Amino acid sequence: MSGEQAAQDSGAGDGGTPTVWDVVVIGAGPAGASAAHAAAVTGRRVLLLEKAELPRYKTCGGGIIGPSRDALPPGFELPLRERVHAVTFSLNGRLSRTKRSRQMLFGLINRPEFDAALVDAAREAGAEVRTGVTVSRVEQHGPGVPDRRTVAVIVNGSGGAAGKRDEEIVYARSVVGADGSASRIGAHVGVKLDQVDLGLEAEIPVPASVAEDWSGRVLIDWGPLPGSYGWVFPKGDSLTVGVISARGDGGATKRYLDDFIARLGLAGFEPSVSSGHLTRCRADDSPLSRGRVLVCGDAAGLLEPWTREGISYALRSGRLAGEWAVRIAESHDAVDARRQALNYAFAVKAGLGVEMGVGRRMLTLFERRPGLLHAALTTFPPAWRAFAGITRGKRSLAELVRTHPMARRALDSVNRA
Ligand SMILES: Cc1cc2nc3c(=O)[nH]c(=O)nc-3n(C[C@H](O)[C@H](O)[C@H](O)COP(=O)(O)OP(=O)(O)OC[C@H]3O[C@@H](n4cnc5c(N)ncnc54)[C@H](O)[C@@H]3O)c2cc1C
């Protein structure tokens, strides 16, 4: 495509000058909405592109721990469906034990509602939102890119009849890729992964008597496959029941979910939704940017490796990406743009990267000794208090390991073994 044609495709400028957004964000999950909000509050022109119509379903437990709550846009009201005060732990269905807390441990939300509210917050901050728009690729060089400060975002791709292209081009000074775990923008940046898991979930509407039994309480089951676990997260009149395990043996993961549902006595209730989704964790040396394009959230492989908690990672990395995308948009040359992109990577690695490192070690421990973890949480009060503190957001696992010699020694010795 020629530069002239590109200018015409943008359609909005006078005299063939393309309209150039300061920041275009791709994907309107928590990462993208957070990035769009952070960029829009600075007064820049921000466009948020989402392939689905909102509200859209996302396979997710909807657990909102303290770090997620703390990373929400100011004044955002969490649409909580449940406040969790008790956790029942079981070891593959055995040794069930419930731990309770007077203070709320964490909250549960429905993703369609939560994500749509975050997008509303970004819109109120000044971002323009377009839904039903699929980004097929971004281009930073070549004849379709008017100049070196501009990224061409190609939307709606070549989905038409053979050879017929149905493309629109949007121009940006910088782009944030927040398009989830099957990210096209992640592929453009070259994101490298060292862990991929498969999560399976069922949304199960239940009668009031069953819902009452789960009110304010979740269940966490350490599963039969290495590193796997299952959960029941109540949301008023329905339960989100799911399991997660390393990708590779989808049949075994599905059997775990079926057995889990059966032994909870929930097999007689018809799920309203049954779905699966991959989660991905980045390799330590994976890039977080390429040129004027940054990635965040699942698209960047930013996820807690042990719990696979990703909403706080999406919100936190999204906010950082939005802030640094604004600086990249202001960069007049490639050297400055690169400096800002490196600053973004540094900020992510110094915070989320450190937490991921500890999470990886926890996963190793958990894969080898799930029974030890279960025993610690259910019979050793400091372990339960640590769990409660982490879910409430009082401290992170990384801080705990750094400041408690006993926790560090335990992790070191099991990892060495
Ligand atoms: C089974 C399961 C349970 C989970 N439970 C929890 C939990 O309880 N708590 C927790 O914190 N985390 C949980 N997670 C992780 C969490 O769901 C993710 O980490 C989180 O959704 C990441 O947010 P995101 O914005 O990066 O991506 P997403 O939420 O996936 O959003 C990406 C968006 O990009 C859009 N998109 C994709 N491609 C394109 C394109 N080409 N063009 C335009 N738009 C596009 C998608 O439609 C989507 O709206 C769970 C994950 C799984 C699989």
Automatic annotation (TrEMBL):
<dbReference type="InterPro" id="IPR011777">
    <property type="entry name" value="Geranylgeranyl_Rdtase_fam"/>
</dbReference>
<dbReference type="InterPro" id="IPR050407">
    <property type="entry name" value="Geranylgeranyl_reductase"/>
</dbReference>
<dbReference type="Pfam" id="PF12831">
    <property type="entry name" value="FAD_oxidored"/>
</dbReference>
<protein>
    <submittedName>
        <fullName>Geranylgeranyl reductase family</fullName>
    </submittedName>
</protein>
<dbReference type="InterPro" id="IPR036188">
    <property type="entry name" value="FAD/NAD-bd_sf"/>
</dbReference>
<dbReference type="GO" id="GO:0016628">
    <property type="term" value="F:oxidoreductase activity, acting on the CH-CH group of donors, NAD or NADP as acceptor"/>
</dbReference>
